Amino acid sequence: MSDSSKGPRTLEVALGERSYPIHIGPGLLGDPQWLSPYLAGRQVMVVTNETVAPLYLERLRQGLAADLEVRELVLPDGEATKIVASVERVWDALLAAGFNRRCTLIALGGGVIGDMVGFAAACYQRGVAFVQVPTTLLAQVDSSVGGKTGVNHPRGKNMIGAFWQPRAVLIDTDTLATLPPRELSAGLAEVIKYGLIRDADFLARLEAEMDALRGLDAAALTRAIERSCTLKAEIVAEDETEQGVRALLNLGHTFGHAIEAHQGYGNWLHGEAVGAGMLMAAELSCRLGWLSDKEVARIRAIIEAAGLPLAAPADMSVEDFLTIMRLDKKNLDSRLRLILLRTLGGACIHDETPAETLIDLLENFPRR
Question: Per-residue pLDDT for 242 more than 60?
């Protein structure tokens, strides 16, 4: 990691020959030194969406050399667009432009754009280079790092995809200035997650700095992004393809993905669903005797302070949850595997939750 007094921070995702940097700091988008080293050749396709393009596409162009062959594709915004048909539009654009195996895709946007562009890169001509340029807090601290790419299916979130690592992740913290408050809160859910699963001291700092984070304090946000990315990079380096410890990053996600799928993708933001899901996981952990009521109250308080939901959708029944949760990718041999908390800062993979305990949680968890 670079000395913060000398400019942007740089972390590394250590994956041997496929290792790559995460650059974090203000003003990175328009500076060629942060993009040029990671382009595979002269052909560059920038993919963004209708919300981000007017804000940051021109600034990104300024960070690309004049002699490159640059094409741009602007897709519709929203989780509902995270489908195979959108990825086909990327492939169509690449083929129409005659792009070869030395092309580079640049994903400029939030998690939806990053996941789709990464999947397009993984499949085009059996794999081409791509760079993540995340513009939302959620994408900066989570989805842009680690190489998970893909799209949703009507029966489940992120069910179609591939592991495909970027060449670099470029996090320009200035982009958070235009992030709506609801999107900021959604990103804070993933930040809180890191403290809950692996770093109790970080969790305590987030509690102390939540007002500053929601107020877009640059120093507080940079600290939170840097620590989140450090923890994510460590876990990905240990378990790239989620055979073990990487599954811990899914705290709250089994419940959250069920909410997203049931409500229709985009009606609840991913981070909102994860926020409610983390509280559900905490309460289940309490029922299993691992967390105290006081610790659950502390988790509830930080989720509330982040502006996230404390209840599930009013129209979701116990059976609605169970039906969708049975399709979760973590499940093995028909056993429901949940990420729970043995302590604050200590998550575990648990596949022996008694059915009656889970049903009791789902029946009694608040609805709104």
Answer: yes
Q: Phi, psi at residue 116, to the nearest 5°?
A: -70, -45
CA dihedral of residues 168, 174, 178, 184 (deg, nearest 10) = 70
Q: Is 153 a catalytic residue?
A: no
Whether residue 250 lies in the annotated active site: yes
Taking the complete model, does pTM exceed 0.90, yes or no? yes
Cα angle for residues 297, 111, 113 (degrees, 5° grid): 165
Active site residue 350: no
Of the residues 23, 232, 287, 337, only one is catalytic, namely 232
Q: Which residues, 6+ apart, have CB-to-CB distance to 95 below 8 Å?
A: none
- 112 contacts 86 by C-beta, under 8 angstroms: no
Active-site position among 253, 262, 287, 337: 253
- Over residues 176-233, the pLDDT tens digits come to 999 999 999 999 999 999 999 999 999 999 999 999 999 999 999 999 999 999 999 9
| Both structure tokens of 88 | 């086909």
> For this structure, is 209 an active site residue?
no
Please pick, among 242, 260, 272, 283, the residue that the annotation labels catalytic.
242
148 counts as catalytic:
yes
User: How does DSSP assign 26-81, residue by residue?
Assistant: TT-TT-GGGTGGG--SSEEEEEEETTTIIIIIHHHHTTS-TTSEEEEEEEPPSGGG
246 catalytic? Reply is yes
Question: Is position 253 annotated as part of the catalytic site?
Answer: yes
